[in-house]
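Researcher: Re-running this chain for the archive, since the previous output was lost when a drive failed. Same request as before.
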Amino acid sequence: KRVEELEAELSTVRAQHAQLEAELQSLKEQLAVRTSQTVEDAAQVQWVQAFDESSQEYYYSHSESGATQWERPAAQIVHVWKQMVDAATGDMFYQNSTSQLTQWDAPAAGYDPVGTQERDGPSSAVDDESSKRVEELEAELSTVRAQHAQLEAELQSLKEQLAVRTSQTVEDAAQVQWVQAFDESSQEYYYSHSESGATQWERPAAQIVHVWKQMVDAATGDMFYQNSTSQLTQWDAPAAGYDPVGTQERDGPSSAVDDESSKRVEELEAEMAGLRQSVAQAAEENEEAKAQIVTLSTQLTEAQQESGRVEAEMAGLRQSVAQAAEENEEAKAQI
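Model: Regenerated structure tokens:
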């Protein structure tokens, strides 16, 4: 019965594992989609900022078509200037990737923020974190699956041992055919064969069900002996023999093997509890990882929106500067 219960629990754990593996597969598919989106976004960064020495002005070159223009494009741009962090002070400075000159003031021509790649796509922090979590979950699942395989093999071995023990117990019980009895007239013990009904005074060589049973005194813990026919008890061991304490009415083989099996069942139960805890912890960490991905994705979207807003403001400022320059030229013409 205990083996059946363990099998049911193991089946439940396997179902939990299947669910965890399905969630892991879903997470990997999400990562594949994220990677595809990252590649598509990176492909959109086709305008590269450059500096014209003759005019001392910035212009923009299309990396795919080779076309150039003075006007700043609305799409994402790879800037000449890169934002950097000073290791000594932690302050931001700016480096020209062409001339390698540096300065503390932010360049008016714009710059690539600190930590961005040469071609700005969505931040890879989400994908790196997700990939790392996938590897951790795969390692945990591999370990738990190996433990389960070992547990199933041990359970199968235990069931086979119990089946052999049951068979042996039935065979041994069949051999216990002699029952001890007491003859009141002669005040002697004799032996009766339970199957044939034959009786004899000689003690048989086979196993015997005795009249006297060994018992344990609950108050002192000492052994005493009880006559199963008369119910009389005594402290001294009867010369006619007795059934040891804890044995059944028909003595079968020693229960040492069964005790060992029961002990192994308890050990397996403890292992099962540990495995279930590992599965629950892995599932909880998986949920936390997915929540982190959602949070990081939201932050990434907000950052992209903020970048778009800044780009729009920059475009408005450039338009205002151009308009002011035009008005300045008109004023000078009027003067």
